[in-house]
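Q: I have 249 residues here and want to know how they pack in 3D. Can you give me a structure?
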Amino acid sequence: MSSRSSESQDNSRTAMLKERVSTAVRSLPVLKALSREDQDRIAGLATIRDFARGEWIWRAGDPSEQLTLIVRGRVKIVRHGEQDDVILEIFGEGEPVGAIAVYNGFPYPASAAALEPTTLLCIPRREYFELLDRHPEVARAVIRELTRLNLSLTRKLEEMRSQRIDIRIAQLFLTLAERMGRETAEGVEIPVALSRHEIAQLVGTTVESAIRVMSRWGREGLLITGEGRFVIPSKDRLADVTRGSADAT
């Protein structure tokens, strides 16, 4: 291959990458309100990263040097334990991940992994702070997300201390339905792939207990597991579980 041909291919790849970054910046809700000039400035500094399902994005203790926004896919935040890992939260498209650590400048307190094929937009920390200073609407959007995360973690800790396993799992899927569910003829579809092990890690129980609950609910038509998705035929029936209208597991 001639040097001219190689250079042409390199230029083409660079142009495609720049276009991916620009498209991502323009598509993310938290950045849509910015002027085209500001969007172009961020696009010139940001990077795009792609991850396969299960691939670690960062590990607990890594430095938090960039604001990470999810362009496509979902990310799970994992706290490593002596017996097993615990999934603290799941983030989806358009949401910032690890923003608390980036904002405060401390290392990531937990690890992050791709729950499915995922694309991330990464903005350097200094530019992130300049963005917050210049655009209060961006700061408000980030604060709302941090507040939601704090409330979610507080609720999770309370549930894991005091509630039955089936109630925890029901609340998990009702929360997922509220955040990412879509109405279909079958019921509310949650387009996310979770293994029984990941469900157990999300609610703080054993894999065996998660399997028992999910298998029983599948037979009863309470929660249907599909390829890369779950379906809740009736949210009212699942909500009954959270009120104690089901046998303990």
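Q: Anything worth noting?
A: The chain has a mean pLDDT of 85. The chain has ten helices and twelve strands.
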